[in-house]
Amino acid sequence: MENTLLQKLLDKQVLPKEELVQLLLGTSPQGLFDAADQVRKQYVGDGVYLRGLIEFSSYCKNDCMYCGLRKSNMHAQRYRLSPPQIISTAQQAVALGYKTIVLQSGEDLWFDTDKLCAIVREIKKMDVAITLSIGEKSREEYAAYRAAGANRYLLRIETTDKNLYEKLDPQMSFENRVRCLQDLKELGYEVGSGSLVGLPGQTLESLADDLLFFKNLPVDMAGIGPFIPHPHTPLKNETTNGHFELSLKMMALMRL
Ligand code: SF4
Question: Do 40 and 165 lie in a common domain?
């Protein structure tokens, strides 16, 4: 059964939701992993591409239940790099040979559009690709970063189950998250999204929906990883059993 579905996936590069669920349930995933590895080899080879990732602020206005940076976590020691510190860090990365700079932070309102665009313009002068990972913004803000020189944007949907999303990300709206991803695509960014695998209340059906969502957008990159409970969040006592293998299956299905 698993082999038949895998062959069908290889032939069609898509499967209906129920058949994706069957593969997520599968008890002998090695064939799936091997097939995904072949595709990985074919398209990107064996090289490892390094990115200069600058995590420039750990402040966040949001309160996602699974995240150690959530605003209610009073144990977190917060920091924020100044714009000159961010630019000089990028200079060091470029001097070391990095070709892509990734600017990542919580949703920190101290960095308004003008400040962010000024930083992006300075780094762009270093002749590198720039990826932003700074959360939900308006279409106008995304357009401004793009005009300043940003090329790529990472914004994980985390889960396409709207009820679960809004339960785990209080005060955030699933529709707005999707709107952000659509705006980013329309503005010409290379877009990365992804899922957290093993969230409490998440079903295999909703993981299959995640895969179809990524295919339909379509995303250019996807970060898929296991949910690991953070000790200073409301989800600290949740289990992690089986999340790692399930994440590998999701990653393999995503590639295929
Ligand atoms: S928006 Fe991002 S950084 Fe902020 S709490 Fe949620 S997951 Fe964490």
Answer: yes
User: Is residue 242 pLDDT above 80, yes or no?
Assistant: no
Q: Identify the CATH number of the domain in which residue 188 sits.
A: 3.20.20.70
Same domain for 195 and 132: no
> What is the residue with the minimal CA distance to atom 5 of ligand 1?
70
| pLDDT at 9 (0 to 100) | 96
Q: Could you tell me if 171 and 224 lie in one domain?
A: yes
- In short, whether 93's Cβ falls inside 6 Å of ligand 1 is no
Q: What is the distance in A from the centroid of ligand 1 to the CA of 157?
A: 12
> What domain count does the chain have?
2
Q: Are residues 56 and 107 in the same domain?
A: yes
User: What pLDDT, on a 0 to 100 scale, did the predictor assign at position 168?
Assistant: 96
Measuring from atom 6 of ligand 1, which residue has the nearest CA? Answer: 64
* pTM of this prediction exceeds 0.90: yes
Residue 249 and residue 31 in contact, taking contact as beta carbons nearer than 8 Å: no
Rounded to the nearest whole angstrom, what is the distance from the C-alpha of residue 46 to the centroid of ligand 1?
A: 32
Question: Ligand 1 atom 2: the closest Cα is on which residue?
Answer: 106
Ligand 1 neighbourhood includes 107 CB (under 6 angstroms): yes
Assess contact for 153 and 132: CB atoms under 8 A. Answer: yes
Q: Are strands 152-154 and 129-133 parallel, antiparallel or unpaired?
A: parallel
Q: What is the dihedral of CA 181, 206, 246, 45, to 10 degrees?
A: -40
By alpha-carbon position, which residue is closest to atom 3 of ligand 1?
Answer: 106
What pLDDT, in 10s, does the model give residues 40-60?
Answer: 999 999 999 999 999 999 999
Report whether 100 contacts 124 (CB < 8 A): no
